Amino acid sequence: MEKKKLVVIGNGMAGVRCVEEILKQDPDRFEITIFGGEPHPNYNRIMLSKVLQGDTRISDITINDWQWYKDNGIRLYAGDPVVRIDIAQRQVWSQGGVRVPYDKLILATGSLPFMLPLPGADLPGVTAFRDIKDCNTMMEASKKYRRAAVIGGGLLGLEAARGLLNLGMEVDVIHINEYLMERQLDRESAIMLRAELEKQGMRFLLAKHTERIIGKKRVEGLLFKDGTKIAVDLVVVAVGVRPNVRLAADSGIEIDRAILVNDYMQTNVPDVYAVGECAEHRGMVYGMVSPLYEQGKVLAAHLCGVRTPGYEGSILASHLKVSGVDVFSAGEIRESEIDASLKVVNGIKGTYKRVMVRSGKVVGAVLFGDSAEGNKLLGHIKQGADASVLEQDGAGAAGGSDDELVCAMSDKETVCSCNGVSKGAIVSAIREEGLETFEEVRSCTKASSSCGGCKPLVSAILAYTLANEAEPEPAKVTVCGCTPLSHEELRAAVMQGGYADAQTAMRALGWQSADGCRVCRPAVRYYAGLAASMAASVTSTAEAAAAASVPPPGAQAVEPTAALLADGTCAVAPRLYGGVATGDQLRRIAEVAERYGIPQVKLGVSGGIELRGVDPMRLSEVQAALGMEASSDSYGKPLSPVATYGAPRYDGGAVRDSVSLGARLERLLEPMQLPAEFAAAVSASPLHQAGTLTADLGLTAAPAGWEIYVGGSRVKELKRAELLGVADGEETALEIAAAFTQWYREEAEYGQRVWQWIEQVGIVPLREGLFDPLRRTELLGRCPSSARGGILAGAAGRGIG
């Protein structure tokens, strides 16, 4: 099959990372052409400050050399930027007159340095700090001149200043604000940074507004608005960047601050995409490398035809080394946006830690001098963790040895946020590839290959792994003291044994106590019931479809919900599918409450109705009076009432009917016995009013279809659900929801919550499996027959067998 033509405008980090991901996923899919404005192969722009400081060569920061382009069959036009896009003819024209047609076009034009519109800004000796050419200009100037001024006290300006100091120049840093790096630091940490940099020889003029650059044939000084002056021979303007959107705007591609894209990085023009600093997603333009790489992965998957949930935006985080000082900043750090904070200052060690809290949740953090806790705090921020986790982490600043830090990290914890590399991936690479040096780890895993901020942690993991090469055998965790079997071994033994009941299984498997205990009895009962349920699922498709004739709303439910309360009485919750009740149902509930003297009738958290204070001796009478049937095969936890919110008929903000779909979902999952409490919710819009982000399974209406979220929790631990994917219609959403629930009930340990199970198996394998029609059909075929009938009936209508 003839390859499609892919053209990438921009040879920077974001565009080329997208190409790298495409080559990983489908190397033969595209004929790739890349245009770059600089006469160099792809290099790490973040490391330019190291080149300026004189301890790194250009070749050291090259990510992909000339040979890489040849090896991958990529045509690179370096130093020949595109100047025109012909959307109608689907082709691009370069400055050198090269014309290339495209099937898919990626705009990765990056940003341009913002040059202050000051009188004298065009004088020789005034430069930006953005590319290799700017580095060379500054290094050449340092050979002839002594006095330099850097306008801009952000990260880029301070890195430029550090490099100029290394080149032997005297450096003044001019900043319009009262303290440095106000986007990443709070006032106190910025003061500590200033003191450290002054020790290194930098001078600072803060709250200064430059009025003009003085000079005749070359820059000679700066004049400020307060009338003061300083003499300088070199001026570096490092006050920020602006997205490079000129080419897009001239071509009729929609822009605002940058090129507007959706969650799949698509512009308003078919087959034209944007990624990186030139892209604006959901009102945000990102300049950090980690979000740009995330965008590149999503775009690569989309172009290769791989199902992806899309790019949802990123929490801004900076893990930096500013002139040798470790700095970490993430999330919300502005005083006006927080309620409280945890602050720890160690004046002896010169370290500072502040964690910001809003509405009881961790929303931001600043670390100075010791950034070892950065990745853990970033995880708390992303999860919206409760502030109580700070007590679990310990109130003090990060301490202890490197070994203690590495030991405390889980294998899933991210070490390199720029490239998404976990501790487990690094340890595996060290052991499997026999890596012995930091450089080998960086080359193999890409950890610390971008900003370099995580180098100390990567080095610590390497040292610890090499010193403890023998991987310890994890201690076996048994179900309880009645058996030497783990949950995994018990489930496998029961599933293979075909035992009639739990008692038979315990006798056959050598239980120390004939009746077991309160821990193992329900676990064995669940695994035995699950085995029987799956064996019964061999019911034919025709029989399953016949079983799909579910009763109308208000009729008998398959599984009553009764819970034991603290006073020894019970709570009974008759099912109201989708949270909707008829007048007859409400009258019946009221009559039962009066007849049996039930003291409390309460709305449940999921929108159902609970009758509380039911005498356990009369429980079956109450259930029968309510029209509830007790299931003969109750072996696990029943599905909680499905919470819903909104339908277009009554809610102007509703995108779709959550009540109708919620009722269908509840009927579908109701026959399933589950290993732990299981809450599902359906929201009518992306506002998640039904609590879909804290449910075990949540379906949210969106313009593109139904977004499916899994792994949320509001019980004991608050967990934000992860996006599993987007289904284009109700039937597909229900199929995925049922297949997910079946997968969970088959593989989870008894008592294991959904979020704990997802942490064990990983969200990526779940996405890949559930969006694979064959794997999904396999899981649906093992659902209880009454549920499977409803699924197959819907699938048959769409020609799926």
TrEMBL record:
Q: Where in the numbering of this chain does the BFD-like [2Fe-2S]-binding domain appear?
A: 415-463, 479-527
Which keywords, in A-to-Z order, does the entry hold?
2Fe-2S, FAD, Flavoprotein, Heme, Iron, Iron-sulfur, Metal-binding, Nitrate assimilation, Oxidoreductase
Q: Where is the NADH-rubredoxin oxidoreductase C-terminal domain?
A: 318-384
Nitrite/sulphite reductase 4Fe-4S domain ranges (all copies): 653-770
Which residues does the UniProt record annotate as the domain FAD/NAD(P)-binding? 5-282
Q: Which domain of life is it from?
A: Bacteria
Q: Does Iron show up as a keyword for this record?
A: yes
Q: In which pathway does it act?
A: Nitrogen metabolism; nitrate reduction (assimilation)
Domain Nitrite/Sulfite reductase ferredoxin-like residue range list:
567-626
Keyword rRNA-binding assigned to the entry: answer is: no
Q: What is its cofactor?
A: siroheme; FAD; [4Fe-4S] cluster; [2Fe-2S] cluster
Entry-linked InterPro entries: BFD-like_2Fe2S-bd_dom, BFD-like_2Fe2S-bd_dom_sf, FAD/NAD-bd_sf, FAD/NAD-binding_dom, FAD/NAD-linked_Rdtase_dimer_sf, NasD-like, NiRdtase/SiRdtase_haem-b_fer, Nit/Sulf_reduc_fer-like_dom_sf
One Pfam entry name: NIR_SIR
Its family remark reads:
Belongs to the nitrite and sulfite reductase 4Fe-4S domain family.
**Protein name (record):** Nitrite reductase large subunit NirB
Which organism does this sequence originate in? Answer: Paenibacillus aurantiacus
Query: Which lineage ranks, top first, belong to the organism behind this chain?
Result: Bacteria, Bacillati, Bacillota, Bacilli, Bacillales
